[in-house]
Amino acid sequence: MPGVNGARSDELRQMREARNRVVKEWLETEGWASAINYHTWWKISKHCAIKDLRPPTARIWSRISPIIREYMSEMRTICMEETLYNSRRRILLQAWIDFLGKLASFPNADGDALPHVADVARFKAFDIVKSPTHAAVELDTFLPTFAALPNLVRNWRRQVD
């Protein structure tokens, strides 16, 4: 019996590897290579739609491809949050700290009830944080937005009150 169990284990391993290879190649041709590299194939291959043993037929592909695309989209979002958006939020935080230091130089920006930087980051004008990856975001990028801050703060206060 040990020979039969070992042969079956090898057969299952080969089936799993073959499916993984096919799915990984498909994902790479679909443009998900950067997400695969960031999260590692080991982690991605644990998804239930990928780790199944059955060979991907046309019917199976039609069922699992939207699931895998959605999963990979979530993985890409996580990657963007961790690598790009967090660093841009740190830049925004530094710009906010600098702004608070120069508050008197901005018209109508009384500092008695200013929003927290987390609230400021949610203002539509500060969507710079989520601008495309090729856009360079530096401290100076936020300066024009801070000029519009008094109006944004007034709107924010109305919503809070």
Mind explaining what this structure looks like?
Helices cover 68% and strands 0% of the residues. It is mainly α and 161 residues long. The longest helix has 44 residues, at 58-101.
Gist of the model:
The protein is mainly α and 161 residues long. The protein has eight helices and no strands. Helix 2 crosses helix 5 (58-101).
Count of helical stretches: 8
**Biggest sheet record:** none
Strand-residue proportion: under 5%
Q: Residue-averaged pLDDT, rounded? A: 83
**Radius of gyration based on Cα positions:** 25 Å
Distance between termini? 75 Å
Quick one: how many beta strands?
0
Task: Provide the helix percentage.
Answer: 55-70%
Identify low-pLDDT runs: none
Find the structural class using helix and strand composition: mainly alpha
Order of helices and strands: HHHHHHHH
The geometry reads as elongated
From the structure above, extract its key features:
single chain, 68% helix, 0% strand, 161 residues, mainly alpha, 8 helices
Walk me through the topology.
Layout: H1 2-29, H2 33-39, H3 41-44, H4 48-51, H5 58-101, H6 117-122, H7 143-147, H8 149-160
Helix pairs in contact: 2-5
